[in-house]
């Protein structure tokens, strides 16, 4: 923990990468866990592809409405708030996340790159015209839900998330890669390290001389790239890390 605090203290640029484990600690199901109840009979590939959406837009839209309700009911754990505090303690901090739940923004993190998009943003399926979130119907029950239509082209409105077979958003991805190459410290939190291409980021950071710190309850694929491993849940480790950092500053 002290070594991690020291690395962060000496860094001008810090990149924080967060994955599904960060969300799971706040009770948000991971992608595969989200296939429960009404949705248990579907494969993710039947709900999270453009082909699935075009085949049955109401089913796919209903599944995302259900996931939005889970996210809205979830309480961000202390690890999220610790990252907000950390943003004030280092000169430059950017969070790059694979999560689509928007929790980092909700608690007040200012610079967040969402590699896989967001459940709370929408666009049309044909032309990706943006569609306002407050005009999206929110069904009360776990059920299929007919998506609204784009006022410009008439095609169905979809969530702005990256589906199977789709590219990551270009601008956001390029920015994440640049930041990994330019940071002096990288915190990798709650990611299995298995999801490509985001799994490359710790290696890019390490290759360009940054100190890589992993926060995870269990060893992962990232551990091999990490200089420092903080074994434990993000909700406990990140506040402890911020405490170690501020203590160090006052002595
Ligand atoms: Zn449109």
Q: Mind summarizing the main beta sheet?
A: 6 strands, parallel
Q: Which geometry do the CA atoms define?
A: elongated
pLDDT < 50 stretches = none
**Helix segment count?**
10
The overall pLDDT average reads: 92
Rg calc: 19 Å
The run of helices and strands is: HEHHHHHEHEEEEHEHEEH
Hetero groups: zinc ion
Helix content: 25-40%
Strand order of the largest sheet: 3-2-1-7-8-9
Number of strands: 9
Strand proportion: 15-25%
Task: Please state the structural category.
Answer: alpha/beta
Distance between the termini: 16 Å
How are the elements arranged and paired?
Elements: H1 2-9, E1 13-18, H2 20-24, H3 44-47, H4 50-55, H5 57-73, H6 78-89, E2 92-97, H7 103-107, E3 112-114, E4 117-124, E5 130-131, E6 157-161, H8 170-182, E7 185-189, H9 201-207, E8 211-216, E9 228-231, H10 234-250
Parallel strand pairs: 1-2, 1-7, 2-3, 7-8, 8-9
Antiparallel strand pairs: 4-5, 4-6
Helix pairs in contact: 1-10, 6-10, 8-9
The site of zinc ion (ZN) has 8 residues, from loops.
């Amino acid at each position: 923990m002290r070594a991690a605090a020291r690395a962060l203290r000496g860094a001008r640029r810090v990149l924080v990468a967060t994955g599904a484990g960060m969300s799971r600690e706040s009770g948000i199901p991971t992608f595969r866990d989200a296939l429960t109840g009404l949705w248990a009979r579907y494969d993710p590939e039947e709900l999270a592809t453009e082909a699935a959406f075009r085949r049955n837009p109401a089913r796919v839209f209903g599944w995302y409405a259900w996931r939005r309700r889970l996210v809205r009911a979830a309480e961000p754990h202390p690890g999220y708030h610790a990252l907000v505090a950390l943003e004030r303690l280092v000169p430059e901090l950017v969070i790059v996340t694979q999560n689509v739940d928007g929790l980092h923004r909700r608690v007040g993190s200012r610079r967040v790159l969402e590699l896989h998009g967001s459940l709370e943003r929408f666009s049309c399926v044909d032309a990706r015209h943006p569609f306002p979130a407050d005009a999206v119907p929110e069904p009360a029950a776990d059920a299929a839900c007919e998506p609204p239509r784009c006022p410009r082209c008439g095609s169905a409105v979809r969530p702005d998330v990256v589906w199977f077979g789709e590219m990551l958003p270009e601008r956001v991805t390029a920015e994440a890669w640049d930041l990994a190459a330019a940071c002096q410290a990288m915190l990798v939190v709650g990611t299995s390290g298995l999801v490509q291409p985001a799994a490359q980021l710790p290696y890019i950071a390490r290759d360009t001389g940054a100190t890589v710190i992993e926060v995870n309850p269990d060893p992962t694929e990232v551990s091999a790239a990490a200089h420092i491993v903080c074994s434990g849940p993000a909700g406990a480790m990140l506040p402890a890390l911020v405490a170690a950092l501020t203590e160090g500053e006052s002595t």
